[in-house]
Specification:
By secondary structure, the chain is an alpha/beta fold. The chain contains 11 helices and 11 strands. Helix 4 links the parallel strand 1 and strand 2. The longest helix is centred in the middle third of the chain and has 16 residues.
């Protein structure tokens, strides 16, 4: 017997021809919806067997907020780095489909270093928290002492057993590197600071696996840094002409765009002279002069896992603890030349 499809807020909204936000407000008895429409929405929800989930452990008095916080280290959120804004929007939409609103707050370096809790936790505005982007273990430990209803997203702690959702960076980086090698490249360099994030270190290990399997030189000392140890992007320093590879494997699309710009400023053409790959499949239009070969892990896949994980955790429902990996696929465009 086929499993009954789970009804989402978007299904109710589509049936009534209204927005998902309006449906969510009506079902959670928030302001902004007329009484007649609110009643109609609730009746349709009952008819469609929509299951409302709410945490019962948030407030000391058993009250709930219907909100989930998304905490992003400020160093990963700037006008020049838009990927996390993209992920935040996808997370917000997925949470809304489960009947939860999202509240974003940036974590400054000072607050992280002094273990200052997010304002949304101090003010008791949220039932659960998603930490988006590599955060120090020491801060996570301090956070856990005060507020344990959180998960990590897009990174994990190698030393602490916190629940997390991240991309299968190791295998996907292996895929893109193996593809570049299949196109005849043998002298290939990795671009990314190995110690900056768990994502970058895993992507380097995938790169290393593909290189070693093909008996190609893979020296960790030849890694080209794209950011400092805190994760802040820095200018790309290209190797000398005699040490220039035929291809660069970059840890993300933003870095790949910066590498392409540096190559062009030094008179190289991509991919005619040197090939370049990225990771994430997310760049503003026209940021590169050539279609970038990259890895695509659908945000909808990983945000779905994250939303279900944090909601199950805060509502006390059974869930698989630990690391959750979401894989993706290779996107082949024009930035890799066959030689």
């Amino acid at each position: 017997m086929a499993q009954k499809k789970k009804v989402r807020l978007s299904d109710i909204a589509e049936k009534l021809g209204i927005s998902t936000v309006t449906v969510s407000k009506a079902l959670s008895d928030k302001d902004g919806v007329g009484d007649e429409l609110r009643q109609q929405i609730k009746e349709i929800a009952v008819q469609m067997d929509y299951q409302v989930k709410r945490t019962n452990i948030s407030g000391a008095d058993g009250s709930t907020t219907g909100n989930i916080g998304i905490l992003i280290p400020s160093r990963f959120f700037s006008p020049d780095v838009s990927y996390y804004w993209h992920i935040f929007n996808a997370l917000s939409s997925e949470l809304l489909n489960h009947g939860y609103y999202s509240i974003m707050e940036l974590l400054s370096d000072d607050d992280e270093n002094t273990f200052n809790l997010p304002r949304m936790i101090k003010d008791k505005k949220i039932d659960g928290l998603i930490v988006l982007g590599q955060t120090k273990d020491s801060y996570l430990e301090a956070l856990n002492d005060k507020f344990s209803n959180f998960i990590l997203y897009d990174f994990y702690s190698a030393k602490l057993p916190f629940d997390s959702v991240s991309n299968d960076n190791y295998f996907c980086s292996y895929l893109v590197t193996d593809y570049v090698i299949s196109q005849g490249h043998k002298k290939i360099l990795f671009v990314g600071n190995f110690g900056a994030t768990t994502s970058i270190s895993d992507r380097f290990m995938g790169f290393q696996k593909a290189m070693l399997e093909n008996n190609l030189s893979c020296n960790a000392e030849e890694i080209i840094d794209d950011r400092n140890s805190a994760g802040v992007l820095i200018p790309i320093k290209l190797p000398s002409a005699k040490n220039m590879p035929t291809a660069f494997i970059c840890n993300c699309d933003e870095t790949a765009a910066n590498v392409i710009q540096a190559l062009q400023e030094n008179g190289y053409k991509v991919p005619e002279d040197i090939s370049v790959t990225g990771f994430d499949n997310y760049l503003p239009k026209n940021q590169t002069s050539v279609g970038l070969t990259t890895v695509y892990i659908r945000p909808e896949d990983s945000t779905k896992v994250a939303a279900e994980l944090i909601i199950n955790k805060i509502t006390g429902q059974p869930y698989i603890k630990g690391r959750h990996l979401v894989s993706g696929s290779l996107v082949i465009r024009d930035s890799v030349k066959k030689i």
